[in-house]
């Protein structure tokens, strides 16, 4: 694409002028958006390397993940709860006699797991 | 291959081997550009440093998944930055909506105490013009101007074709030119 444009520029002076104008805009924009000292990455580098050195592992990492991104975990928990409720409903609708007691016991287990 | 890209590719290979000094080299190559890009794209520019840190931490943890056949290191890094900025802005909007964060104050971009009012006004106008661009045009023009990426690198970073990037750039420049001329 660049080669195409370069050969076109030789034959078409207007295109060449456009390209120069585009480059000038990009240059102006880059110059305008630069602030003094923003090329200094020493602090950034130090922060990243410090974080790598102090990276939490295992349970600490999981806790940090849950606290910083609670929504996916909450949705996963709600999904599991829904699955349990659905399974319980389907099983209880056909339950009679001893199996009903077994399902009640199963319900207790689910209750314990779900924290209710 | 461009010497900068060759150095970045070597740094990536070293990172896969677990060399932390290679990450520092990568930050030296692309840290400033990525931070500048984030500062322009984020709704809250003060988060730019955090996003830049996150980009390089992700690059470290996912270094093994980098595939040179799919694009330059710069494209890969900027793609991470583009996605992180989108996530941060989305989260920021939600946090402001529920009142956790207050609306971001316009950033004080004073280039220095001695800087003229004209320069600051021009900067504010340009930033407003960039913010008014559609997201893809804004991403493309900032990757070009601030990240100093080539068309091919931008295409890989935005997961599109070089032709589409050219179109985005042409439209973005035209919109900026029109808006800034109107303001003048």
Report on this model:
With 116 residues, chain A is mainly alpha-helical. Chain A has two domains: 1-40, no CATH class; 68-116. Chain A has six helices and no strands. Chain A has helices at residues 2-11, 13-33, 42-53, 59-68, 70-93, 98-114. Chain B folds into two domains: 1-106, RNA polymerase sigma factor, region 2, helix turn helix motif (Rna Polymerase Sigma Factor, Chain: A); 114-184, Winged helix-like DNA-binding domain superfamily/Winged helix DNA-binding domain (Arc Repressor Mutant, subunit A), CATH 1.10.10. Chain B has helices at 3-16, 20-41, 48-61, 73-97, 117-132, 135-145, 151-158, 162-183. In chain B, α4 crosses α7. Chain B is globular, with a radius of gyration of 17 Å. The model of chain B has no long low-confidence stretch (mean pLDDT 86). Chains A and B meet through α2 and α3 of A and α2, α3, α5, α6 and α8 of B.
Q: Helicity level of chain A, as a percent range? A: over 70%
Strand content of chain A: under 5%
State the end-to-end CA separation of chain B. 42 Å
**CATH 4th-level superfamily of the largest domain in chain B:** RNA polymerase sigma factor, region 2, helix turn helix motif
Overall outline of chain A: elongated
Q: Count up the domains of chain A.
A: 2
Radius of gyration of chain A in whole Å, from Cα? 32 Å
Which protein chains are joined by the largest interface, and how many residues does each one contribute?
A-B, 24 and 37 residues
Helix-strand category of chain A? mainly alpha
Largest sheet of chain B: none
In the CATH hierarchy, what is the class of the largest domain in chain B?
A: Mainly Alpha
The H-and-E topology of chain A, N to C, reads as HHHHHH
